[in-house]
């Protein structure tokens, strides 16, 4: 049993945690149509769950993370995982849109803090030279959720009903909780500090600028990602099997994206993000023009998937380095910034996609993210300038 308490098993549990969180958050994208049909509501209404989930996630995470900032990490992560299981259990038995919405609120309330605590564990247990790759590994759990969770969840929903998809998440989450009990160290407690001391992190100029980058990154991509299944089925006319396969391939690109992200984090990767976002802008603009050539459309979707998470590890390390050097009492809050503002970006991007979908149709959804990508370039350039000035 003692062999389970080594770094490899601890990392596995943290990655499995992020996988369960990503599975629960992203699966709505794959089962959007099925929920709308069974609950007799519109696809846009169900799509709004993506927006509200992300918004609640982003708003609740800093509050809860700050409140738990000096508590034992093991007790915090296991307690919140129990709440996460309850939220998904309610989704699994929901027979109305209202109950489903409530269940998603409960799940969203704890998801962001669970990510933050997993990142904080990584910061404490990983040797300094391995930290960028471990951070990328934790984020890869979300990508693996795209590879396996969303396509498998979509297939289960089509074959057996969307309730069974949430039962699958409940079982996975229980297994994860059991492994937490077995594997995670129980003696890690962040330094004690008052609320004002923890929030001092948010007065740092580089933090205030850098927090916008994960938001704008996902705001640029989520108009497309939120309505990816309707685009594939209604606009590009793929069969249910074809949609599942493309979602699987999209997930593969997300894993590639995270691996690239880990490499970039080891080589000051924020400096390389501006040209990457220029490429994203070009892809988003030409995507609506590719609908007559399905292969080109799919290739563009997969290339956008590669861009989706490349900023995650460099920006997470950016926050953690600042906290370690100047605000050590704010490590948990620093660990949460990426997930907080990523979900603001998800909320903004999915809301933008919903509005454009209603007003102009599916063909205009992808290009609605272009403005956010342009703003992301501006943020990257400001960060690079601030880094140069402070050196």
UniProtKB/TrEMBL annotation:
Occurrences of domain Major facilitator superfamily (MFS) profile (ranges): 10-391
Protein name: MFS transporter
Lineage, opening ranks: Bacteria, Bacillati, Bacillota, Bacilli, Lactobacillales
Highest taxon of source: Bacteria
SUPFAM superfamilies for this protein: MFS general substrate transporter
Residues spanning the membrane: 12-32, 52-73, 80-102, 108-126, 138-160, 166-186, 207-225, 237-257, 269-289, 295-319, 331-352, 364-384
Keywords attached to this entry: Cell membrane, Membrane, Transmembrane, Transmembrane helix, Transport
InterPro entries: MFS, MFS_dom, MFS_Efflux_Transporters, MFS_trans_sf
Protein localization: Cell membrane
Main location class: membrane
Membrane topology: Multi-pass membrane protein
